[in-house]
Amino acid sequence: MKKRNNYSMFQVSFFIVFLFTIIFMALIFSGLFFSGLSASFVTIIQDPEFQFALSFTLWTTVLATTIATFVSIPTSYVLSRREFKGKALAEALIDIPIVLPPLVSGIALLTFFGPLFGESLKQMGIEVAFSKWGVVVAQTFIATPFAIRAFKQAFDGIDTRYEHIARTLGYTPTLVFWKVTLPMAKGGLINGITMAWARTLGEFGATAMLAGVTLMKTETLSVAIFLKMSIGDFDFAIAISIIMLLVALTVLYVVKFTMRGERSA
Question: Could you name the CATH architecture of 49-263?
Fold first, then answer.
């Protein structure tokens, strides 16, 4: 009986911490909504600058997430299924954009696409620095490690015996990957794609360094918030923040609710 009571207290203490965390997060973000009561959302939504930032953000984040997905699937599969010399170093290199401040990643990208190879790329008609393509490159660079981590975890969770059985049934390695591995990893892949997209949505530091913060040229929603805050237009900045929060919350909730339904089924 005493052990049961101690175990119950243990659970209760954890649940209290859980409640505190949820309430604290809710209070922090609710401040945005109370501060945004004075903002005219209709006026802001009709503003050409907001419309540009919204459409540009959707275009760059979808493109960057797509590129990150195509790069991350084979990379994460190799990391999950193969052992080779230097694997730890390769994984550390991939994780660098996660642990470094985005500004540092932005400086590295600007150096690469500027003094080192900028002119050569320009001669081929490819201009990355301080252009819309710089936004896509920066978002892709920051989001890809998150996708790789999530995809690798999904592949690690698959029992390789299923793949071996498929091989004994005459499946080629390509068919095994498409018919067995990918379907079994679907949940983790969708979660990874969602997290990668969410990371591109909130990206600012690397984008600012590589593409700049030019009004209605490289202006994502994150850049728009920065520009509006820098000139004291707090209502506009808070309104954009609320819209970004609602979009991110909705997408993440729908994906997690859907994945939870699939697991329970």
Answer: Orthogonal Bundle (1.10)
